[in-house]
Amino acid sequence: MTDAEWSEVRAVMPVPAWLLKRGGRPEAYCHRTMLDAVRYLVDNGVKWTAPPVDFPYWRAVYDFFRRWRAYDYARELYERLRRSARQRAGRNAEPSAGFIDSQSVDASETVGEDSRGYDGGKSRDGRKRHILTDTDGLLDAAAPLAARVAANDVQGEPQIKPQVPHVFRAFAGLFDETAAGRHRCPGALDRYPDASGEALPYGAP
Question: What are residue 166's phi and psi, to 5 degrees?
């Protein structure tokens, strides 16, 4: 990542316990280097054991990744970056409204049958991802499923956080009180707002 990107990430990264004088052994590698290594592996699809020599030893990178996955640090980092971006734009840290939609994508041959399917409407053999974003388009939640799952199937939609009281859908289908209760959503689940802005003006705080 660039110096500008790292300055943004560093400001919201979880602080290791040893830096807070709470014990633990100091880490041998800079977090920037480790994050760059993980991002390189994800972006290029190379083996864990075959990173370029510019990065730390592969086992150190893998252990770093496993530790972050176990403690859900990646999600926490993203949540902090999202809140920071909203506040810089003059918005509340947590959104009060969001949009939910689904998209079907083809899957490779390595994706098992238990998590893939055929979407007849979109002619896609793979997976369907349901995503929830705020009104600025920043991701709030995601749920990947087999493509055969209907877009308006409530079981496929990501869990809505209580801080998002108004959620609007871009696909057809009716939601009952059971669906709203499952999402812990105090506001009504409605269709995407129309051009008149009657449902929700764009840019709600």
Answer: -125, 120
Q: 127: burial class by Cβ within 10 Å (0-12, 13-18, 19+)?
A: buried
CB atoms within 10 A of CB 89: 10
* pTM, rounded to two decimals: 0.68
The answer to whether residues 87 and 93 touch, using CB atoms and an 8 Å cutoff, is yes
Rounded CA-CA distance 48/28 in Å is 19
Q: Say how many Å lie between the first and final Cα of the chain, rounded.
A: 31
pLDDT tens digit sequence for 50-74: 999 999 999 999 999 998 889 888 8
3-state DSSP assignment of residue 129: strand
Q: Burial level of 196, CB count in 10 A (0-12/13-18/19+)?
A: exposed
The Cα 13–Cα 34 span in angstroms is 13
- What pLDDT, on a 0 to 100 scale, did the predictor assign at position 19? 66
- Name the nearest CA neighbour of 101 among 144, 137, 132: 132
Q: Provide the sign of the torsion angle of the four alpha carbons 55, 56, 60, 64, taken in this order.
A: negative
The upper half-sphere exposure of residue 125, i.e. CA atoms within 13 Å in the direction of its Cβ, equals 6
Please report where in the chains the tokens 């893998």 appear, as a residue: 62
52 φ, ψ (degrees, to nearest 5)? -60, 155
CA atoms within 13 A on the CB side of 53: 0
